[in-house]
Amino acid sequence: MTIDRTTSPPTSVGWLNGAGHRTALNVFMFVVLAHWAEHLTQAYQIYVLGRTPPQSRGVLGQFFPWLVTSEWLHYGYALVMVVGLFVLRKGFVGRARTWWMVAFAIQFWHHIEHLLLFIQAQTATPFFGKAVPTSIAQLIFPRVELHLFYNTVVFLPMVVAVYFHLRPNRAELTQAVCGCANRAAVPVPA
């Protein structure tokens, strides 16, 4: 019996970007949308209901108030996002990959901002002469609005990436390593 050494054994990352890409992408996007729901609910509580930011705790924060003030949760989500975007990138090709990597680059910076907040919270040492943990962009923008902005500028290129991923052109379809694409939507040359 001979062993074929030209192909490597399947890996978890290989499966996530191949046969399991659609499932992994759906789970990842569910987590992203649930996070969006939290931020939008918080914005609604502030701007429509007139609550102060500390009183505006989103959905989960109503039941678990400590979540809103926990930098563990915020940093954990930022880390899940950057890792998810990085791990799932290999399933994207062509235009979809370009947009996915734009989202990754922005999320990487967002992750750095959360890392700064996390370090300050864990060491009880606020930076920049502030009384509370503060990120670099928070020196200019309020935290609630800043995070709505960050989530928007990460989410929009993700949506464009998924659109192109599910509707590739002919060249991209030949490069695809997963079965996510709607093959019926690919234009056939005349």
UniProtKB/TrEMBL annotation:
Transmembrane segments: 72-88, 100-119, 148-166
Keywords: Membrane, Transmembrane, Transmembrane helix
Record-given protein name: Uncharacterized protein
Source organism: Catellatospora coxensis
